[in-house]
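Hi P.,

Sorry for the delay on this. The queue was packed all week, but I finally got your sequence through. Input first:
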Amino acid sequence: MTGAGSAAASQDPRPRPQYGEYASPEEQRAHIREPAATWAYEPNAATQATAAPTAPAVAPAPSAGAAAEPRTRPRAVDRIVTFALLAYGLINVVSAFPALVDFVAYADTMFDLLGVDATLTDPAAGKPWGIAAALVLAFGWVLTAGLSWLSMRRGRLSWWIPLVGGVVFTLASGMLVLVPIMNDPAVWDALVSSVR
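Then the structure:
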């Protein structure tokens, strides 16, 4: 029977398959999943001369996961800049926290830098504002770091989040620090006279 089978194969009028056109659907799917596992095409002169020209092979459409992968791939420069800005913000928060908690010393240092000869009339009233400003800075950094991390995990540009977070929470903290200074009439008069 083997002789009859080989004789029938040699008398087959169809050309030898080159592109898997006689493959079953399962074999075609296996080839699409693992193209390296299939045989390598080596054209010979006899089949090229008799074969009709065929249309170029079309690559299979990428799946949704493969199409989304390049967009979610993290950008190295964006990550470096984002982490650098977050580190800079953390250093600022850690260094400002003790100064804001000791609000009297902070206010005296600020007055010295501005060249104003003034002291707070009620130093105890400024302490809660200093603590609130320090907590706003700390909460702002944690929130900014969390949003940056989520953005980086989704593959989005994230460098702008620490910048915006730093500006917003530094301004909010600065406004809280100014409340006891602006409500102190002696300090306010000293500031106004120094401007004139």
